[in-house]
């Protein structure tokens, strides 16, 4: 299966007294490049999340955002820290000795005092399993998104492969005739220019030249590379780097075909092949 490096997933998971929010975004990159935007309460879980991402993704620039929204209301009855309130009362009494006209603390002032109202705290250990489950589900959704994009890229590449095969099939039957016609033209010009040259020598040079302009080998390698592209597209292994290498090889054979061209037909085919290969290469840059 082909996976694109472009994908998105967003999830929300209620937990006790809070809600976890996850966003995963990926774009193309040569290597796996992970960036985090984590809530302060779960920043300590970054190594866990990084390991999960590396386990499921091999390439791409990944942005992972996790927020923790704590609910103000709790299922348990709020408790008051009586020891802290006694300390506040003692401190207030001592302060009023020196400032008798100062205002006495109100109930609202006391309840707002940090630590007076005991709230349930969400510990990092308690969050770890919830975060792990959320990230695993997010990665599953992300891979599904990348697979859908990968199917689109695969269709585009296979379409270009079909056009390349059509170009090769179009030029292959013409090559013997084109080479023969070129040899005849070259022989006629040589004979006109060099009337006294040994005919056997001319024939030998023509044979050597015909070998230099023979493109059967290039067309054979083109066909082999095309078959390998198809095989990789239907495999389950990461394909991006291998396909990128094959695009270089295909482009090399197309260039050689153009340099050996002895007619406008093969030149046009060479140019068309290079256009199709470049179109595939642009799409392959986004394959994992």
Mean pLDDT: 82
Order of helices and strands: EEEHEEHHEHHHHHH
**What general outline do the C-alpha atoms trace?**
rod-shaped
Distance between the termini: 10 Å
What does this protein look like?
With 288 residues, the protein is of the alpha+beta class. The chain has 3 domains: 7-73 and 125-146, Ribosomal Protein S5, domain 2, CATH 3.30.230; 79-118, no CATH class; 147-284, no CATH class. It is built from 9 helices and 6 strands; from the N terminus they run βββαββααβαααααα. It has helices at 46-56, 82-98, 107-112, 124-171, 175-193, 199-213, 216-233, 240-259, 264-284; strands spanning 7-15, 18-27, 32-38, 60-70, 79-80, 117-118. The strands form 2 sheets. A 4-stranded mixed β-sheet has the order 1-2-4-3, covered by helices on one side. Strand 3 (32-38), helix 1 and strand 4 (60-70) form a beta-alpha-beta unit. Helix 4 (124-171) runs antiparallel to helix 7 (216-233) and helix 8 (240-259) packs antiparallel against helix 9 (264-284). The longest helix has 48 residues, at 124-171.
Task: Summarize the structure in short.
With 288 residues, the protein is α+β, with helices and mostly antiparallel strands. It has nine helices and six strands; from the N terminus they run βββαββααβαααααα.
């Amino acid at each position: 299966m082909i996976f694109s490096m472009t994908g998105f997933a967003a999830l929300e998971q209620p937990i006790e007294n809070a809600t976890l929010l996850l966003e995963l975004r990926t774009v193309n990159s040569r290597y796996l490049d992970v960036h985090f935007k984590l809530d302060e309460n779960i920043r300590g879980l970054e190594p866990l999340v990084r390991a999960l991402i590396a386990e499921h993704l091999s390439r791409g620039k990944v942005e992972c955002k996790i927020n923790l929204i704590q609910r103000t209301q709790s299922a348990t009855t709020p408790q008051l820290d009586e020891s802290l309130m006694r300390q506040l009362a003692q401190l207030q009494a001592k302060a009023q000795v020196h400032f008798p006209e100062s205002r006495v603390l109100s109930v609202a002032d006391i309840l707002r005092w940090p630590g007076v109202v005991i709230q349930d705290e969400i510990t990092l250990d308690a969050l770890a399993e919830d975060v792990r489950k959320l990230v695993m589900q997010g990665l599953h959704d992300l891979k599904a998104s990348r697979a859908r994009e990968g199917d689109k890229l695969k269709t585009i590449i296979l379409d270009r492969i079909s056009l390349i095969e059509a170009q090769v099939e179009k030029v292959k039957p013409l090559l013997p005739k084109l080479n023969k016609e070129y040899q005849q033209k070259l022989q006629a010009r040589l004979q006109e220019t060099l009337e006294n040259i040994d005919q056997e020598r001319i024939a030998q040079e023509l044979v050597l030249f015909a070998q230099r302009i023979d493109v059967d080998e290039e067309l054979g390698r083109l066909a082999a590379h095309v078959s390998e592209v198809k095989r990789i597209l239907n495999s389950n292994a990461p394909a991006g780097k291998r396909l990128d290498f094959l695009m270089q090889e295909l482009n090399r054979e197309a260039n050689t075909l153009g340099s050996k061209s002895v007619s406008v037909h093969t030149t046009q085919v060479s140019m068309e092949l290079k256009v199709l290969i470049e179109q595939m290469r642009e799409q392959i840059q986004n394959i994992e």
